[in-house]
Amino acid sequence: ANMTMDEFAKATEKDGFQTIKVKKHKTYLKHGPAHVTLRSNIYGHLKIYVENLRPTFAKRDSSHVFLSSNGRQMTSGDVSKRIDNIWKSSGVYGENPPPKKNVTGNIIRKSMTTLVHESSEDNQAVADLLAHRLGTAEKIYRVKKMGQQARAGATAIENVTRRNQSTDKSAGASGSEPSTSSKGLENGNTKARDRS
């Protein structure tokens, strides 16, 4: 929600990823800018929004990338409401009622950490990408390696979610019900192995 047009314009590309460094976030003083790391094709979709859709409702003094339809900056609460609405309308729950707890960016972030911790060697890369706590002794070294770690973390999240989608499709083909929620998302269970 806090990404500015200036930060978007300064995105850097490496290894098929675009990284946008966002300064305004709650752990900035401890971890530095958040590395919003997107595959180049996803970044391309964001660029289409920035160049074609955003100008239709942006006010002259709007410096943020994500705006509501009235031209004001979206808050993190606005973004969370949109994520929950999209999630519910996607059909992911099938015939099941959605959980009582809303799906938010924070729940997705924590769930990705749990999934990767359960099935990957890239735990530290994901922790770095999601700005979780780091050991004090490693802090300076990790800050220097943040861009590389952000790309590795984004790849690990992409791999684990694709693997879970394949598992869900296989379960559906065998006649059993596919999972309608990932580990860590069901019933809002995000506390397991959460280090944030």
From TrEMBL:
Keywords of this entry: DNA recombination
GO molecular function: DNA binding
Comp. bias (Polar residues): 176-190
GO terms of biological process kind: DNA integration; DNA recombination
Region (Disordered): 148-196
Gene3D superfamilies: Intergrase catalytic core
Superkingdom, taxonomy of origin: Eukaryota
Name by which UniProt lists this protein: Tyr recombinase domain-containing protein
UniProt domain Tyr recombinase: residue ranges: 35-142
Species classification: Eukaryota, Metazoa, Cnidaria, Hydrozoa, Hydroidolina
